[in-house]
Write a structure and sequence with these properties.
This protein is an alpha/beta fold and 234 residues long. It has a single domain, classed as 3-Layer(aba) Sandwich (Rossmann fold), CATH 3.40.50.720. Helix content is 44%, strand content 18%. Helix 1 crosses helix 8 and helix 2 runs parallel beside helix 3. The longest helix is centred in the middle third of the chain and has 29 residues.
C-alpha cells in the first residue's frame, strides 16, 4: 500500500519543496494551504492549523484514503516581527497559536493515526532563531524554541510505539523573503555563515525526506541544524 504524508504549509517555499520531494519518493501527498496553491498532483486542503475541527476533518479524509499514513511535516506558520516593546499582545498570540499550538494540534491528531500502525514520524520545521534568539522576533523565536521542547517530550511519549519525532532547524534559506534583502544585508549575513551561502529549499527537503525514511529509523528527539554552520549545532 502506498505511504502517505501530510505537509502542513505546503503552498510555497520550504513546504512546497518538501511536498515535491515526498511525491518524488512515491508518497501520496496531502498538502495544506491558507490562500492559494500551485498546480501540483497533491491532495490539497485549505486549513487553519489553529482550528481543531478542520484538522480532524482532514485526518478523516487521510484515513479514508487507500494510502497508509506514515509522516507528518509541520511547516505551517506565520511571522509578525516587531521589537518587544512595540509588539502587540495580538501579534504575540497569533504567532504562538499558529506556529506552536498549531503544530501541537496536528501532532496530537496525527499520533492517533500513527499509533494504529505503530510506525511513522513527525517532523517539525523549526528555525535557528529557536536556539539563538533574534531581535525583533520574540514571538517567532519563542514559538520555534517551543517546538524543540514539544518534540523531545513527544519523542519520550511515543518512542515505545516506534513513532519518531524530530526538528529541522533551518538557517537562512533562498526564498522569496531572503530575496527581498538588500545586497548589503546579504553580505553581512553571509559573513556569519562558514559555508558562505544560503541553503536551498531542496536541501531542506532532502533532510525532511531522510528523517521520514528507514535510514533514520534510530533517530528521534533530535534537533538537526541545516544552516551552513551559522549556529554551530546550537
Amino acid at each position: 500500500m502506498k505511504p502517505a504524508v501530510l505537509v502542513a504549509g505546503a503552498n510555497r517555499g520550504i513546504g512546497l519543496a518538501i511536498a515535491d520531494r515526498f511525491h518524488g519518493l512515491g508518497y501520496e501527498v496531502f498538502a495544506t494551504y491558507r490562500s492559494g496553491h500551485p498546480d501540483r498532483p497533491f491532495r490539497w486542503f485549505e486549513l487553519d492549523v489553529r482550528e481543531k475541527d478542520g484538522i480532524d476533518a482532514l485526518f478523516n479524509e487521510i484515513e479514508k484514503s487507500e494510502a497508509t499514513f506514515e509522516a507528518l511535516i509541520c511547516n505551517a506558520g506565520v511571522t509578525k516581527d516587531q521589537l518587544m516593546l512595540r509588539m502587540s499582545e495580538e501579534d504575540f498570540d497569533l504567532v504562538l497559536d499558529s506556529n506552536l499550538k498549531g503544530a501541537f494540534l496536528l501532532a496530537q491528531r496525527a499520533s492517533k493515526t500513527l499509533l494504529k500502525t505503530r510506525k511513522g514520524s513527525i517532523t517539525f520545521v523549526g528555525s535557528v532563531v529557536g536556539m539563538s534568539g533574534s531581535a525583533g522576533q520574540v514571538n517567532y523565536s519563542a514559538s520555534k524554541a517551543g517546538l524543540i521542547g514539544m518534540a523531545r517530550s513527544l519523542a519520550r511519549e511515543l518512542g515505545s510505539r516506534s513513532i519518531r519525532i524530530n526538528v529541522i532547524s533551518p538557517g537562512f534559506i533562498e526564498t522569496d523573503m531572503t530575496a527581498e534583502l538588500s545586497e548589503e544585508r546579504k553580505e553581512e549575513i553571509l559573513k556569519s555563515i562558514p559555508l558562505a551561502r544560503f541553503a536551498t529549499v531542496d536541501e531542506v527537503a532532502d533532510l525532511a525526506g531522510f528523517l521520514a525514511s528507514d535510514s533514520a529509523r534510530y533517530i528521534t528527539g533530535a534537533v538537526i541544524p541545516i544552516d551552513g554552520g551559522l549556529g554551530m549545532g546550537h
